């Protein structure tokens, strides 16, 4: 029996690279996405396409409405997505999002008896979100092993972060080596219904810079 991994899959560049990395390590893949009240469904459509293309055994899309608490440009339509760089943590930060997502992933991992959870966070070339830092991941892994039956029984749960120390360019180069089709991915915070990127938001700027520095052709479809 192959080892199992739960992989958080947003439909974006980073999570797709992580899915490919887990596949290359021989895991049976169980992908988890969230319909959390984000601005558009394009990334979920991308996640479904990616899961199908990469041979995922099961792909769950879990509904939850984080727009109910708001506080982010990604879940509150009254807050504009910024198109210029700003100091501090940007308004595209969704309060406690990775903690919520990892908690659901942890529950599913217990059901599957999967000891590895993959998440595509990076602390390099990123927007400064606090729940993407190595110290957060280390703390969450400790919590996971304190709070679960698997952990108490000595089956250590690992939070895997293959991209944590990679630049966006290095991530793209890794994905290129692994055969990732980045044309399937949607990273834009305000993509249109066709999945075309704005080319101006923080996520788009990091993605454009990453492809340029990686020397890899950018297959992203941008709005006219």
Automatic annotation (TrEMBL):
UniProt xrefs under InterPro entries: QueC, Rossmann-like_a/b/a_fold
Organism of provenance: Saccharospirillum salsuginis
Record key words, sorted: ATP-binding, Ligase, Metal-binding, Nucleotide-binding, Queuosine biosynthesis, Zinc
Free-text function comment from the UniProt entry: Catalyzes the ATP-dependent conversion of 7-carboxy-7-deazaguanine (CDG) to 7-cyano-7-deazaguanine (preQ(0)).
Pfam families documented for this protein: QueC
Residues the entry annotates as binding ATP: 9-19
Cofactor(s) needed by this chain: Zn(2+)
The protein's annotated pathway: Purine metabolism; 7-cyano-7-deazaguanine biosynthesis
Top-level EC class: ligase
Coiled coil (residue ranges): none
Keyword Ligase: yes
Cofactor details (free text): Binds 1 zinc ion per subunit.
Lineage start: Bacteria, Pseudomonadati, Pseudomonadota, Gammaproteobacteria, Oceanospirillales
GO BP of this protein: tRNA queuosine(34) biosynthetic process
The protein's name: 7-cyano-7-deazaguanine synthase
GO molecular function terms noted in the UniProt entry: ATP binding; ligase activity, forming carbon-nitrogen bonds; zinc ion binding
Ligand binding (Zn(2+)): 188, 198, 201, 204
Domain of life: Bacteria
Enzyme Commission number(s) of this protein: 6.3.4.20
Catalytic activity: 7-carboxy-7-carbaguanine + NH4(+) + 2 ATP = 7-cyano-7-carbaguanine + 2 AMP + 2 diphosphate + 2 H(+)
Family, per entry: Belongs to the QueC family.
């Amino acid at each position: 029996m192959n080892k199992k991994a739960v992989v958080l899959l947003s439909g974006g560049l980073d999570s797709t690279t992580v899915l490919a990395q887990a596949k290359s390590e021989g895991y049976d893949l169980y992908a988890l996405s969230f319909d959390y009240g984000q601005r558009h469904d394009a990334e979920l459509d991308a996640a479904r396409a990616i899961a199908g293309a990469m041979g995922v055994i099961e792909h769950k899309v879990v509904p939850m409405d984080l727009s109910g608490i708001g506080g982010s440009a990604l879940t509150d339509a009254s807050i504009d997505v910024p198109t210029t760089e700003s100091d501090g943590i940007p308004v595209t930060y969704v309060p406690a999002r990775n903690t919520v997502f990892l908690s659901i992933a942890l529950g599913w991992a217990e059901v599957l008896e999967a000891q590895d959870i993959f998440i595509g966070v990076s602390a390099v070339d990123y927007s400064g979100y606090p729940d993407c830092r190595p110290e957060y991941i280390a703390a969450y892994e400790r919590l996971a092993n304190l709070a679960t039956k698997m952990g108490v029984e000595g089956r250590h749960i690992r939070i895997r972060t293959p991209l944590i120390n990679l630049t966006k360019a290095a991530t793209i180069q890794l994905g290129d080596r692994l055969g990732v089709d980045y044309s399937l991915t949607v990273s834009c915070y305000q993509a249109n219904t066709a999945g075309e990127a704005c080319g101006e938001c923080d996520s788009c700027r990091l993605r454009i810079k990453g492809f340029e520095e990686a020397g890899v052709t950018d297959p992203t479809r941008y709005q006219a």
